[in-house]
Design brief:
- By secondary structure, this protein is mainly α.
- It has one domain: Rhomboid-like fold (Up-down Bundle), CATH 1.20.1540.10.
- Helices cover about 65% and strands about 5% of the residues.
- It contains eleven helices and three strands.
- The chain has a three-stranded mixed β-sheet, with no helix packed on it.
- A hairpin with a 4-residue loop joins β2 and β3.
- It is globular.
């Protein structure tokens, strides 16, 4: 009985009007590509430093006065260290919590994909670009790591623009989310007077410019022994150092120009 029910039905045995159902397509095998990544140790280190500095601010509020971005102290008294120290200071608990969450979210991804050295170069040089943009375009004092965070944010966007074909639909979805997040943050900044918008824009543009030469250039290759497809970074570190040095000289020239104009 069971053999008769399970045997294939001959076309002449089908009832009138019955049609043959199309065969179920077999699922296509999907290739898994191994992307070179590193553990985001530098991101965790920066987060720890930001927390330690903020606790020190609570113990001695004078640190805020000594380290914030102050145009008068920088331009008239030569206290250029403020362009860097302002990146480690925060005004209140909400300020450091928001920046800490953003750095934790964005920094881990960017450092994993870019590596420790390129991540740190983009973070600090992009942060300096943010400080210089703020120095040039707004007289208000400012503190916070958000300019540097916007730099690595810009670098992440450029990475997924460059590797759209490699990541496919997933990469396009990530890229769309990043662009929407950038536009949302810009809208929030423009509608909130206490936010240093020029610093954010300067950091974002600095990160984009730095990522052009510093971003990994992933190329696919096949490993016969393991049978895996791997992505290899074809951007040599020697060129990374040269490009970072040129960008740093450009920031120095920009600072000299700001001093002369002011």
């Amino acid at each position: 009985m069971s053999q008769y029910q399970n045997r294939p039905i001959h076309p002449l045995e089908r009832p009138p009007g019955a049609t043959e159902s199309p065969p179920t397509p077999e699922p296509r095998p999907t290739a898994r590509v191994k992307i070179p990544t590193v553990k985001p140790l530098a991101t965790y280190g920066i987060l720890a430093i930001l927390v330690i500095v903020y606790l020190a601010e609570l113990l001695d509020p004078r640190l805020m006065i000594l380290g914030r971005k102050d145009n008068t102290r920088i331009l008239l008294y030569g206290e250029t260290w403020r362009l860097m120290t302002a990146m480690f200071l925060h005004a209140n608990p909400l300020h450091i919590i928001m920046n800490g969450l953003a750095l934790y979210s964005i920094g881990r991804t960017v450092e994993a994909l870019f590596g420790h050295v390129r991540f740190l170069l983009i973070y600090f040089l992009g942060g300096l670009a943010a400080s210089l943009a703020s120095l040039a375009l707004t007289p208000a004092g400012s503190v916070g790591a958000s300019g540097a965070i916007f730099a690595i944010f810009g670098a992440e966007i450029l990475f997924f623009v460059r590797h759209q074909r490699l990541f496919g639909r997933v990469g396009r979805r990530i890229l769309n989310d990043l662009i929407a997040m950038a536009l949302l943050n810009l809208a929030i900044g423009l509608s909130t007077p206490m936010i240093d918008n020029w610093g954010h824009i300067g950091g974002f543009l600095g990160g984009l410019i730095l990522a052009l030469p510093l971003s990994p250039r992933l190329k696919l290759s096949f490993e016969p022994l393991s049978g895996r497809i791997v992505a290899r970074d074809e951007n040599p570190m020697e060129g990374v150092w040269w490009c970072a040095g040129v960008f740093a000289l450009g920031l120095l020239a920009l600072f000299v120009l700001i001093v002369i104009v002011r």
